[in-house]
Amino acid sequence: MEKIVIKGGHRLEGQLPISGAKNAALPLMCAGLLAKDGLTLHNLPHLADIKTLASLLTELGSTISYDEEGWDIGSGQTVTIAASHIASTTAPYDMVRKMRASILVLGPLLAREGEAIVSLPGGCAIGNRPIDLHLKAFEDIGATIELKDGYVRASGKLTGGTVHFPIVSVGATENILMAACLADGITIIENAAKEPEITDLATCLVAMGAKISGIGTSRLEVEGVNELHAAEYTVMPDRIEAGSYTVAAAMTGGELELLGDNLPYVMTGTLEILKQAGLVFTETERGLLTRLGPEKIIGINAVTQPFPGFPTDMQAQLMAMMTLCDGASVITETIFENRFMHVPELCRMGADITVNGSTATIRGIEKLLGAPVMATDLRASMSLVLAGLAAEGVTEVKRIYHLDRGYERLVQKLGSCGAKISREKDNDI
Ligand code: EPZ
Question: What are the structural domains, with CATH classification, of the chain?
């Protein structure tokens, strides 16, 4: 295993390219199953989750070709996913358990082949992550759902229909949206998620010949078509990576220019809270300049919400910053039931945080102290890296395979902006 070693207290300054969004890239890759003649995606990030999904899509019969646009720090990869025929409609447990977003192959397989057998993804560190909303939605548009031996089998001809989600679900919206494109009728999706990644997926599906209206709203209308065709699409920038690095600049008293398109829009919800915390943003030709304003970090009251609210995927990173706030802050997590595992690790670095149910109260301290800490999930591990960048002394973040799932070239990017950070073998575990 490997660890990240950070010598804290160094200001971050310079330009930092934002990679393609993991949470847009994954559903977009699954959309490749819907067309026989190939979907080409640009700006795909070099991440473990992308590799995992690519191997699943290959297993299902897709041909995947890579056009490496260079491994320099800012470039994504171009990948073409051609599913001329589907060799298998089964997503096996050993692949799905590695990455729960594999459940997003269910909709495309069901729409394309009239059948999909996908292992139930099971829970993860942040919650039990059920898929009941996905399955109910498929039944609403004509599918039959059977659960057996830890697998879900969805089958039948999709006729379209009305889907009403009782709570907002990003993955369920994406799954049903992809399936509805090839249904034999019209599908209405009410209370659809409005995250930018959904808009990215819907825009790509339209480029492939899908008929979707209401994009960007909570009511989507899909008129099924017989088939989708090849298209090219560029993945949007990763709003969570961008938000994470704005926190890095603020916590180290530095200034970063984040390079990426449309960052203020995709970062809706995040920017509002960060501005309340005293961060200053200036749009530039190539992206967004970010630094902490003249004050100290100002304490805030943040509640995670579906888009356009403050994103749950930024909660752990915001909390890291609030450990140094002037006064106190309150952060409430409303999306996942166990997303405070970074708290005990931040406390090991001297943070003053108390948790009461889904609410954390953070009392600002003068400085964090470096320490060996353990990553538990993707965003928690980033919050520990951020704390390490600001802390006095050396911080070692262990189990960084979590980080590799969602942050492309993290050490190179931070190192290029002045961080004293390295990736080393961890002989302890
Ligand atoms: C997506 O997960 C993201 N993952 C998550 O990012 C993100 O935190 C989440 O959306 C919320 O924005 C990807 O896009 C790959 P949900 P998803 O369905 O789709 C409950 C990261 O760090 N629910 O919107 O799984 C669920 O338990 C990851 O990049 C049901 O009850 O999230 C949760 O409480 C973490 N039944 C809430 O809804 C269902 O059938 C929102 O989950 C589905 C979800």
Answer: 2-18+237-425 (3.65.10.10), 22-234 (3.65.10.10)
